[in-house]
Amino acid sequence: MTLVLFIDMDYFYAACEEARHPEVKGKPVVVGTAPPNDKLRGVVQTCNYEARKLGIHSAMPTSQAFKLDKNLVYFGDDYKYYGEMSEKVMALLKAYGHRTEVVSIDEAALDLGEMGYDGARGQAEAIKKEIMAKFGLPCTIGISTGKIYAKMMCDESKPNGLGIIEEKDLKAFLKGKDVIRILGVGKKTADRLNAMGIDTIGKLAKADPNVLIDNFGIFGKELYQLANGIDTSRVEDKYTILSIGRERTLQKETTDMKVVESMIKELAKEAIEELNRQHLWFKGISVKAKYTDFTDKIKNKQFNNYTDSLDLLTTEGVKLIRPLITDRAVRKVGIRVSSLAKREGQKKLS
Ligand code: TTP
Ligand code: MG
Ligand code: MG
Q1: What does pTM read for this prediction?
Q2: Is the pLDDT of residue 273 over 80?
Q3: How far is the CA of 272 from the centre of ligand 1 (A)?
């Protein structure tokens, strides 16, 4: 039986700042979107656990965070530096020689193969120790028989933790959890499951698989399997680093595609500027519309070749988001480029 190790860095951007400013350790630290001289205008991207104890969290307006503690230590985000730290961490993980999937700027999954639970624990301890020694960064690791369970365990073991769910304990582990905890289950699917009387993964495991397939197609089968401890998602051999995204709340909620279009253009321009700064190309794009009820919709597209074209990003971004703009009021939109590659030695589209 193969085991999967899932790692997520703790309070990543803020931890990166602590690593280069050790004097702020132990104080509440916030990383926000706005520069320090304009810090009250932005939102919190992340904060350390001292700040979380005060009730501060990601996406909170910075002004509100400062109301909770006027002496917060504040940093304006520095993507370039966080990207570099991410690359270093990912390279370190890759060097352990397992199939490695970079999931996000601060997350990766490793396929540990058949080394058993003790071996896996040893590996995880070694990784945690090495990342702390080399970069001064804390992280949390979850281990299980599948990527999705390992990620769940990782989430539950934060911060600075190491959690293992053995196969024999998996069903009990999953039983009481809300269905929304399953990767790929969003609010809409969760609502539909709830309407069928299925609110926990335990109930999902006992549901009639045919009814699930009737309602959700092939995804219904996957849901049933996942709830029953069968995680068929594999660790992909994917070693692209981060994605670069920009999103912004509109001045006024709107159903007007023209307003959305001009915002997408603005955000695309910013994303490309960042892409240029980091000397990267992209191959994937996604757009997001967040509605006034706080649900959101995302659409993705993957190109065949790498590009850095702002025109392409803008045109495709606008095309992608158009079907998401209906009579539901939108309050926030975003665009993101992914599947990035260093410009050297890659074939480009145009
Ligand atoms: P997360 O892994 O979600 O959060 P975290 O690492 O800050 O904290 P922890 O994992 O210990 O709970 O996100 C990774 C980084 O992504 C985070 O450091 C900053 C960035 N980020 C944002 O910019 N905006 C957001 O809303 C979130 C959630 C994260
Ligand atoms: Mg993290
Ligand atoms: Mg993360």
Answers
A1: 0.75
A2: yes
A3: 22
